[in-house]
Design a protein that fits this description.
Length: 240
């Protein structure tokens, strides 16, 4: 009876060979290893997510106020009014507080100021005033200054300087020598000298316009001439 049971067991339940048992063990080990890798990846993803959340929470929205300065004329006529415009704009991410513009008067009188309790992102304030030069010569126009707080109630003040007058003109002309520099200078002159200076500038514009017209028109003229020659040749070929 016992022998019969053993035969029945071996017939219906196939026994695994040593090779099959080894493959089974290796497969189990790989499954365990894959499961550990998956768990580690999930832990790393959760940790990265937590770090991103913490970094976003700690990130401070900081304001940054930029100031620009300009004058209505850099070549001015004596006894004629000149308008100075100073603008400050918040290009940062947060609000700026206690914003103040201070500009030295070109004639040496009391400084001009403009303030705002708060500037949100993208907001600006503008200081505008007029002065009348009474003497011939050159006026040194200094950059304006803006001061502000990065947070309400702070004691540390941030500051920024504006551009110089004629700074772009100097870069355009390539005048880097301080002895010939026009940066920060306003020339005060008589009406006759002003007219003569601007007459020469008008002449420069006219000459430049003629040169540009030649550069544009001459290639077009050559193109039309060639096109006319091709059309003539085609007509003659059709006649033949």
């Amino acid at each position: 009876m016992t022998a019969l049971c053993l035969c029945f067991f071996f017939f219906f339940f196939k026994q695994k060979t040593a090779y099959e048992m080894l493959r089974s063990l290796v497969g189990s080990e790989m499954c365990i290893r894959d499961r550990e890798v998956g768990i580690n990846m999930r832990v790393l993803l959760v940790a990265a997510l937590l770090l991103a959340v913490v970094a976003a929470a700690d990130k401070k929205e900081t304001p940054y106020v930029m100031v620009t300065k300009s004058v209505s004329e850099t070549d001015v006529i004596v006894s004629k009014p000149v308008t100075v415009t100073v603008s400050a704009i918040n290009i940062g991410q947060g609000a700026a507080f206690d914003v103040s513009i201070v500009d030295s008067h070109p004639l040496g009188s009391e400084s001009q100021t403009k303030s705002a309790p708060k500037l949100e992102q993208g907001e600006n304030i503008t200081l505008t005033y007029v002065f009348i030069p009474t003497e011939l010569g050159t006026l040194h126009v200094r950059p304006a200054t803006v001061t502000y707080l990065t947070a309400e109630g702070e004691t540390n003040t941030e500051s920024a300087l504006s551009n110089f007058i004629n700074e772009n003109e100097e870069l355009y002309r390539g005048e880097m020598d301080e002895s010939t520099s026009v940066r920060g200078l306003v020339a005060v002159m008589t009406q006759d000298k002003y007219d003569a200076l601007h007459a020469s500038k008008i002449l420069e514009v006219i000459v430049y316009g003629i040169f540009c017209a030649i550069v544009v028109v001459f290639p077009y003229y050559l193109y039309k001439a060639k096109q006319s020659q091709v059309e003539t040749l085609l007509r003659e070929a059709k006649k033949k």
